[in-house]
Amino acid sequence: MVRKVAASSFLGNFIEWFDYASYSYFATTIAQVFFPSSDRTVALMQTFGVFALSFVLRPVGALFWGDYGDRKGRKGALSVSIVLMSGASFLIGCLPPYAAVGLAAPALLLLLRMVQSFSASGEYAGAATFLGEYAPASRRGFYCSLIPASTAIGLLAGSTIASVMSANLGEAALVGWGWRIPFLLAGPLGLIVHYIRTNLADSPVYERMTKALEAKGGAAAGDSRAKASSPLRTLFRYHAKELVISFGASMLNAVGFYTVLTYLPTYLSETVGMEASRSSAITSVCLVLYVLLVFAMGRVSDAFGRRKVLIGACVAFIALTVPAFVILNTGLFWPVLLVELALCAALTANDGTLSSYLTETFPTGVRFTGFAVSFNLANAVFGGTAPFIATWLIWATGSAMAPAWYMVAVAAVALVAMICSHEHSDRELADI
């Protein structure tokens, strides 16, 4: 059962991030299809603007799926969300271009991105919660690191497809039909994940809570408040401090992840002037390292605790980011590769630990809601906007270093949050 839960969690999250990778790595192509403009920067900002606007529904989706998962079970929420998420991605691959239907094309793109974002808002949090509640306490960090690993593998798959297609297809073929292929693949993959999830049992921690409430008429200690009222109301009334700290901890994940693994290829090609195929190749190498290190960081957090590892990640970003961007702006292949690998290593310390940390922060009755709200709100405000803000900061300041200082500021806020945080890595989830 644990293997089936791990497989469904991996594939569901893979689909979500394969879609996001495809959108990011084909951003310049999508800009030509849906936002024709004589100014390349304006078209690119419009494309990233749709990317950012789709995140507006992330917090709304987090409230919906968190409530669904805490009231009716993790399995049911994840089974429904994957169908909506993969279906929206599939339909993006079927959209007509601006040349055929005019403004209806970008409007439909935005609509489907919002549906996809609404559905995906429960995927990361739900999959991590589901898997964390199955995992033994001594290896919870390692098991939960499968979620960010699947994220990186999704991005790696998207990056690889983008690199191969860019190298073998002409611009006319990419604009005409090539960019559609990654989105169309989401349809059949989503149906496979839906089938696996409908044949799973709900998590033992959640079922134990439900049975205890039924046996005691809803008066089980700790969780009765979540059942007596809405999970959201309980979350804000009794766990507001944990929610704020979790939001702060998730900020670095949001900005760091979207900047290092999805925005930098565009930054290197559009701002620095590096050849697009070389910048994509560097990102692919970094994603391989990310997958390897994220599992290692999960094991490290099992041994030393989540709090220490997350604090270390914040300090690393504060110290490394500005020097790293100085080297990135040289445009030299090997120095850029080494710098991106260093940033990627710092990122894995955060990402490989955050999913287990957030799972351990909230009690069972509000765990899905607390994880989903804090994680998705941070991603809506700071993650989805990261490429747009980075592009705008460069345009507004005239400095290619502006995104680096933005990341340093976010890392400083995350550090304060983690200093104020808890340590529950050695506890059973049912006892939190």
From TrEMBL:
Domain Major facilitator superfamily (MFS) profile: 5-426
Any matching Pfam family: Sugar_tr
Subcellular location per the Swiss-Prot or TrEMBL entry: Cell membrane
Membrane topology: Multi-pass membrane protein
Signal peptide from the UniProt entry: none
Natural source organism: Bifidobacterium phasiani
Alphabetized UniProt keyword annotations: Cell membrane, Membrane, Symport, Transmembrane, Transmembrane helix, Transport
Name assigned to this protein: MFS transporter
Transmembrane annotation, as ranges: 43-65, 77-98, 110-131, 143-165, 177-196, 243-264, 276-297, 309-326, 332-350, 371-395, 401-420
Main location: membrane
